[in-house]
Amino acid sequence: MDRIVKGVLNFRQNVYPQHKDLFGTLATGQNPDVLFVTCSDSRIDPNLLTGSDPGDLFICRNAGNIIPPHSNETGGMTASIEYAVAVLGVSHIIICGHTDCGAIKGALDPDNLKGLPHVKEWLGHCRSAMEIVRERHTIPFDQGVPHELLNEAIEENVLQQVQHIRTHPAVAAKIATGKVQIHGWIYNIKTGGIRCCQQNDTLFSNFDDQYADIIEQL
Ligand SMILES: [Zn+2]
């Protein structure tokens, strides 16, 4: 805790004064352009890896960067997505998975989650992705998915969550009218690289290829 307290003091004395104007503007409202959904994993810093500032990203985090498909039951993710899209009017939704994801490791082998009933239930939202990997590699239903397939499972999970978010009515409406675009990302913790896909893709590509049009104009 010492480091955290020291950090707060440093923020108050040094960081805040440097950004006083920005915080002054943000004090009365936010206007983020991006809803950023990612894993709770401590190794991911959305602002750091996108070079963005406070006020730029509306961030939702949970174990496994999961978006439960829409239902009439209300959950934290459902409410946050609805608010970001319908009220804040974000134009882009980035769903960012990452390498070495503990949640996906758990989803690959749910028998190891016996003492964690809530984790097990939550990771049920990844099941289709795990089943795709299992089917592709003809792994019998009574066997766990080998960890060599972790990266493939992480990618499939992001592809699946991209589909899930489209079932949320506010998102479906904005996609249908071209007002929101969905991006799937995989952040590589070791290399700092990002692989990505767009809402209709089934494969991931290099970041620089995916965003070549934007990069050209920089
Ligand atoms: Zn994770």
Automatic annotation (TrEMBL):
Which CDD domains does its entry note? beta_CA_cladeB
Tell me which Gene Ontology terms the entry assigns under biological process.
carbon utilization
Q: Which principal EC class is assigned to this enzyme? A: lyase
Reported cofactor(s): Zn(2+)
Q: Which Gene3D superfamilies match?
A: Carbonic anhydrase
**Superkingdom per UniProt:** Bacteria
Q: Which UniProt keywords apply?
A: Lyase, Metal-binding, Zinc
Q: Name one GO molecular function term.
A: zinc ion binding
Any keyword Endoplasmic reticulum?
no
Which Enzyme Commission numbers does its entry carry? 4.2.1.1
Which residues are Zn(2+)-binding?
Answer: 39, 41, 98, 101
Name the Pfam families for this protein.
Answer: Pro_CA
Record InterPro entries:
Beta_CA_cladeB (IPR045066), Carbonic_anhydrase (IPR001765), Carbonic_anhydrase_CS (IPR015892), Carbonic_anhydrase_sf (IPR036874)
Question: Is Transcription regulation set as a keyword in this record?
Answer: no
Give the cofactor note text: Binds 1 zinc ion per subunit.
Query: By its UniProt entry, which SUPFAM superfamilies does this protein fall under?
Result: beta-carbonic anhydrase, cab
Identify the SMART domains for this entry.
Pro_CA (SM00947)
Q: What does this protein do?
A: Reversible hydration of carbon dioxide.
Q: Which family does it belong to?
A: Belongs to the beta-class carbonic anhydrase family.
**UniProt-recorded name of the protein:** Carbonic anhydrase
